[in-house]
Write a structure and sequence with these properties.
Blueprint: E1 3-5, E2 8-14, E3 17-18, E4 32-34, E5 41-42, E6 57-59, H1 62-76, E7 81-93, E8 96-109, E9 112-118, H2 124-137, E10 141-144
Parallel strand pairs: 9-10
Antiparallel strand pairs: 1-2, 2-3, 4-5, 4-6, 7-8, 8-9
């Protein structure tokens, strides 16, 4: 099917309607795609790492990517353990699910669960979910700016 927009080719609209087009981030940050196997990262979404072919992991910002690298180093040196990304927490009130909080990073430090979120700006939704996490699960979120 040829791509056209008002007779011009090469547009992001095709003859059948809207084609998939990369969307800009809500807050203007750039996504980072990182390979854990070889350490290569790119700003473009590609099917696999161009260096080794392993899958790439998406980070919502450069700050989040940098924090991941710092936490990986701390895990390798034995300061923390059980490091994970994008762990979901269900927010249940009186037996009803009111939402889900997805933590950027979770790990154990000296036997205590630490939940981190990298934020450029604290939105009202984030503040509400942080309060719900403290009230429901008893977990205080560490905000990294």
């Amino acid at each position: 099917m040829s791509r056209r927009f008002g007779g011009r080719q090469g547009s992001w609209l095709d003859a059948g309607g809207l084609a998939s087009r990369p969307t800009r981030s809500k807050y203007g940050n750039r996504h980072i795609y990182h390979c854990d196997a070889c350490g290569h990262y790119t700003l473009r979404q590609v099917p696999g790492c161009p260096m080794c072919g392993q899958p790439l992991f998406r980070f919502d910002s450069r700050a989040e990517h940098q924090r991941w690298l710092q936490l990986q180093l701390r895990e390798r040196t034995g300061q923390i353990d059980g490091l994970s990304r994008q762990r979901p927490f269900e927010l249940m009130v009186n037996g009803h699910k009111v939402g889900t909080y997805r933590a950027d990073f979770c790990y154990r430090e000296r036997g205590r669960l630490v939940v981190e979120d990298v934020k450029g700006a604290e939105t009202p939704v984030y503040k509400l979910k942080a309060k719900l996490m403290l009230a429901i699960h008893g977990i205080e979120i560490v905000t990294i700016k």
